[in-house]
Design brief:
The protein is an alpha/beta fold and 262 residues long. It contains 12 helices and 7 strands. The chain has a 7-stranded mixed beta sheet, sandwiched between helices.
Length: 262
């Protein structure tokens, strides 16, 4: 079981912060933009019929609902009981059938068959052993199937904190991401290069690479207040999949196909 007071040593459980997480992430423009880009990247899969989908760390269940409403067969889990209860409420409101489990992604990976699609969104950076856990989760993708992986970008964390200066310079120097500052800063952000190398070694080819919030999160509150949000989102959209800019997104989204071995 995750222990909140020792972030980084255990897989993080959001029971203690479910409401804050919901308000700070999902209930904001940032969360809406993230969801928009994820669904755009996965639109071709969504249009197919009867896929088996595992939502590994489903949060409030938005992506589970999106696939289930299209008739796909969705299994979802979350370590947090409170997050899972919120997901259950949301799925009921949407009239969706989703099989829910309170369990870690690693436990589920040892208990379910391989899937056509595995969604692993904003979980990796909260795990005690992120890359080892990613191997386990990615192993549940069928040959010819798809992994949708969203993770917190270490490059963005470094750059944003260096722009702020002060005590954050020491945090960046020591890699102590969760030692000070906001509690929603994850303990184990990953670099796109490390994640891409692991996926390639596991037999995946990245076919879509999207940076989520490549400008917004570097702008101070005063600058955001002076900026037209529609214009900002237009620029976010223009650059979110271009090399250099995409690698600076707050989050990185990879859509990766698993090769068919012959």
């Amino acid at each position: 079981m995750a222990r909140v007071k020792e972030r980084g040593k255990y897989d993080y459980n959001f029971d203690a912060m479910a409401q804050k997480f919901e308000e700070s992430i999902y209930g904001t423009l940032k969360g809406e933009w993230r969801l928009k880009l994820l669904q755009e990247d996965l639109a071709s899969l969504h249009k197919q019929r009867g896929l088996s989908v595992w939502d590994a760390g489903c949060g409030l269940g938005q992506m589970s609902a999106w696939f289930a409403k299209e008739g796909h067969h969705v299994i979802a889990n979350d370590l947090s009981f409170k997050m899972l209860e919120r997901a259950k409420e949301n799925l009921q409101k949407e009239g969706c059938e989703v099989t829910l489990h309170q369990a870690s992604a690693q436990e589920m990976a040892n208990a379910i068959p391989q899937q056509d699609v595995v969604l692993f969104h904003a979980v990796l950076e909260w795990l005690a052993e992120p890359l080892e856990s990613l191997k386990e989760v990615a192993g549940r993708v069928k040959e010819g199937g798809v992994l949708s992986l969203l993770f917190f970008n270490q490059h963005s964390l470094i750059y944003r904190n260096m722009l702020k200066g002060g005590w954050r310079v020491g945090m960046v120097r020591d890699g102590s991401w969760y030692g000070r500052g906001k509690k929603l800063t994850p303990p184990h952000p990953q670099t796109p290069e490390d994640v891409e190398a692991l996926l390639k070694a596991e037999g995946f080819e990245i076919v879509t690479y999207t940076g989520i919030r490549v400008f917004h999160d570097y702008m101070e509150k005063e600058a955001l207040n002076q900026t037209n949000m529609e214009e900002l989102l237009e620029m976010e959209y223009r650059y979110c999949r271009k090399p250099t800019f995409r690698s600076m997104g707050r989050y990185i989204h990879f859509v990766a196909h698993k090769r068919i071995e012959r």
